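BUG-549 | component: ligand-complex export | severity: low

The export step for alpha-D-glucopyranose jobs runs without errors, but we want the raw record kept on the ticket for reference. Input record follows.
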Amino acid sequence: MKRVSSHVSIASEAEINLDLSRLLIDKPRLTLERKRSFDEQSWSELSHRQNDGFDSIMHSPAFPSGFDSPFSSGTHFGDPHPLVNEAWEALRKSVVYFRGQPVGTIAAIDHASEEVLNYDQVFVRDFVPSALAFLMNNETDIVKNFLLKTLHLQSSEKRVDRFKLGAGAMPASFKVDRNQNRNTETLVADFGESAIGRVAPVDSGFWWIILLRAYTKYTGDTSLAESPDCQKCMRLILNLCLSEGFDTFPTLLCTDGCSMIDRRMGIYGYPIEIQALFYMALRCALQMLKPDGEGKDFIEKIGQRLHALTYHMRNYFWLDFPHLNNIYRYKTEEYSHTAVNKFNVIPDSIPDWVFDFMPCRGGYFLGNVSPAMMDFRWFALGNCIAIISSLATPEQSVAIMDLIEERWEELVGEMPLKICYPAIENHEWRIITGCDPKNTRWSYHNGGSWPVLLWLLTAACIKTGRPQMAKRAIELAESRLLKDGWPEYYDGKLGRFIGKQARKFQTWSIAGYLVARMMLEDPSTLMMISMEEDRPVKPTMRRSASWNA
Ligand code: GLC
């Protein structure tokens, strides 16, 4: 067994083999309890199970095939909410077929909107909540087809003008091109070469790996992840982010607009969303890569990177009251290894709002950390993924949830959940967004509220034992979503207004709601997306040692 470190543990080859086999051995365990509803009481049971290998249990299908809605037996919420059936109906309408097979879901079906732009495409990131909903409803084919189609698209030619993109890049989106004359269908992908701003989606490859693990864990079908094509696809994705360069940090350097926030919003550098997804994808890949041939090298590289990344994120991205106070009192211009203020952050650059926003109890991962720059904004996706993936320590996870509770009005308000907080305004908005009329204060990516984030919030709530908090958020969303036609986002400080340019019937708003509700109904489904705290590798106890003890 190879140990990368004694401090932060990384799965070794032996563990990985073990992991895959454990996935299968434990398979039937959860099925017995799947339909039980979740309340505060059952949490302790669930967390206990997590500690004894919950993370590695391979799931078997939740419901017999042909089962249409997973809420036939009303549990925690009582009878199925009328929204659930409506949501399933709308989700089914969004399914995209390629040569007769379901391959994904369209971003939005908004007939009223004049500008289609690329909302008629299947976005990789948007499909994730759809995929989770379908998996939970035992409709696994669409997920498998999606994974295979996008895998094949990875090998298409990708070019921006005369520049060729890396082989591992995964598409932001794809569409089915139908030639009526020839009666043919082809898939056409966009890797950023057509996207507004011409940015490649760094998150797509990570989501692909995360989804492959979710599929494998839920269905028990390891053959897909083990296939040479999937192994190669993972290696190509990883190759893009594990290659050596001029980096002095283990975090991934990114350009603006490379993730869910796909416009200029001042997230260039080391955005938390990408770092959290990077961490999670690395851990997922570690469970799925075969330790043979090329896979072996990657496993070793992943181990080293995770070790450094975990340390960096937990230490330098973390902000709570004591940390903020330390930064506030930082000395600057320190040189050499003894420097406390390693990145030379100037205390004067701390924005005023943070001092009011930071509760005594609670904390969060900063938006971005780079030389002389800390983005103090709070970002939902990165912080929720940090909890789900266990990038956050258990204490940090609790603190993130404490902060959401303490700042409920600001972060949840009337519609869960703010994509980031606070909005940037005036001169700052002009400089940072380049005067983007779509990202005006408290709108869209600039402090808008996105219903899709509800599933991530719910997953984080369940993982930290706060189902009541998720319930509260879901009920808030239920009071508006259907009535408002499933908008893409809401505007305003409290998220009270349907977004200025929000699409209606935005698929991930619909799917995000369904996933949130299903997870709360059956918290064991969390395991397909959640990862356990990485435990230190225990030294093997030899007989003689135990005798001596
Ligand atoms: C917007 C969002 C992006 C999403 C796309 C399709 O561009 O910023 O995250 O993938 O719409 O819904």
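Assignee comment: Attached the raw record above. The first helix runs from residue 13 to 25.
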